[in-house]
Amino acid sequence: MFTTIQRIQFNKQFFIFSALACLCLFPVISSPIALVLGFTLATLGLVPSDINTALITKKLLAYSIVGLGFGINLPQAIEVSSNNIGIIVCSIFSTLALGIGLTKALKIKPKMGHLIASGTAICGGSAIAAVAPAIDADADETSHALATIFILNSVALFVFPLVGHWLMMSQHDFGIWSAIAIHDTSSVVGAASVYGDEALQIATTLKLARALWIIPVAFISALMFKGDNKKIPVPLFILFYCVAIAVAYLFPQFDLLYQDIFMVSKRLLVLCLFLIGAGLTIKSIKSAGLRPMILGVILWVTISVSSLAYILLAM
C-alpha cells in the first residue's frame, strides 16, 4: 500500500515523466535532446518505477519503423541506390564486418557491438531500432548503442560542413559523403542544408535509399543471432515496413496521408529515444565502460575517411 508521501512522490514523478514524454511528440524536441531528457530523469530518480519503459519502447519502435516506410519514394530510392550501388554496398558490409572483428577484440557484448555497427553502417537510430528486436537485444544493449551513435551524430553535424569547406568539396560530393558517413537522417539533413540546396537534395535522397538496406540487414542479423533455434526469427515489422513502402508506391493518390504518417512516425521515434534514455543510468554506463564508444568512434572514423577518399579520388 502506498503511504501519503509515496503517493505524492509518485504523482510528481508521473506528471513530470508524462509531460516530457508528450513534449517529445512535438518538433521542439530533437532526437539527441530526447535521449538526454530521458537519461536526466533516470539520473534524478524521476522515472515512475511501475512503468515498463523497455516493453513500451519495443512496441513503439516497431510501429515507428513501419510508419517510416510510407516516407520512402521507391523509384527514387532504387535509382539513387543503383547509381551509387558500389559505395553503398561496400560501406555497409565492410562496416558490419569490421564491427564484428572489433567487437571481439574489444570484448564488447556481441549484440551491443552489432547494433553500433548497424547504426553506423546504415542510418543510425532507425537501423538500431529495426535490428534490436530482430536479434532480441535487451534494453541495456539498445540504449548503449543509441547513446554511442547519437553522441557521434551530434559531433558530425558540426564537423562535416567544416571539413567540406576546408577541402573545397562540391555540393554534389558533399551530399554523397554526408549521406554515407553521417549516422542519422536528421543530422544528414542538418549538415547538408548548411552546405547548400544541391547538397541537401542529394544527401536526403541517398540517405533514404540507404534506408532500404534496413530490410536485408535485419534479416541477416536475425540469422546471425538465432542461437540454438532451428527457426530463423522473422521480424514481422520489417515485413510491414516493406508493405508500407509498396502501398505508398502503388497508391500515390494518398501521398498527403503517407506524409502525415511519416511525420508522426518520426515523432514516435523521438519518444522512443526518450524512453530509452529513461532506462539508461550512470551505473549501467559505468558497467559498459568506454569500449562501446571506442568501437563507435573507430567505425565512424573508418567509414568517414574511406568514403571521403573514394569520393575525392574516384568521382
TrEMBL record:
Main localization category: membrane
Stretches that traverse the bilayer: 15-48, 60-78, 84-103, 115-135, 147-167, 174-196, 208-225, 232-252, 264-282, 294-313
Topology of this chain in the membrane: Multi-pass membrane protein
Localization: Cell membrane
Keywords: Cell membrane, Membrane, Transmembrane, Transmembrane helix
Domain of life: Bacteria
Keyword presence, Transmembrane helix: yes
PANTHER family xref list: INNER MEMBRANE PROTEIN YEIH-RELATED (PTHR30106), UPF0324 MEMBRANE PROTEIN FN0533 (PTHR30106:SF1)
Family membership noted in the UniProt record: Belongs to the UPF0324 family.
Name of this chain's protein: UPF0324 membrane protein
